[in-house]
Amino acid sequence: MRFSKKILLFVFFLSIKSVLPAQNNPDDIVGYYLNVDPFSGALSQVYIYNAGNGAYESIVIWVREEERKKYEGLVFLKEMTFNAAENEWQNASMIYPGKSGKYKANMRIEKDGRLRVRGYWGVSMFGKTLYWTRENVSKNPKIQHP
To answer: Given this model, what pLDDT does residue 42 score?
Structure first.
């Protein structure tokens, strides 16, 4: 009887762990990401890095369209911090290359490994959600980053 209770408890705790989302470490977001511009459909690669003091930034590494190459090397996202309680990176200040104004962004790593990026102006409800795909290497070794 005691043995079956131990097995039952073991199975219960194992099932809870599989249902709960994995807790990220702050630096889990660091890396290269391929994304599609939500307005133009342009393909680009960005690099997210730890800028120090608990903040993260992102730089444009590569863009496919020749007319947008001028944005390579642009740090377009700053001041993003990790919120462990929410298991996401929040309060990023972001500029959209070629447009005026600043936006906010929150990011979360999905179960499938994609980065969910919620960009908004003012209130998060009035924004756009994008999904960036992680990549292993830079598409443009000329662009240096931290």
So the answer is: 92
Q: The pTM is what?
A: 0.82
CA distances from 75 to 18, 80, 108 (A): 37, 13, 20
Instruction: Return the CATH number of 27-135, one of 2.30.30.40, 2.40.128.520, 3.40.50.620, 3.40.50.720.
Output: 2.40.128.520
Residues 119, 135: Cα–Cα separation, whole Å: 21
Bridging pattern class, strands 102-109 and 75-83 = unpaired
CA-to-CA distance for 8 and 137, rounded, in angstroms? 45
Report the first-to-last Cα separation within the chain, whole angstroms: 59
Burial class (CB in 10 A: 0-12, 13-18, 19+), 90: middle
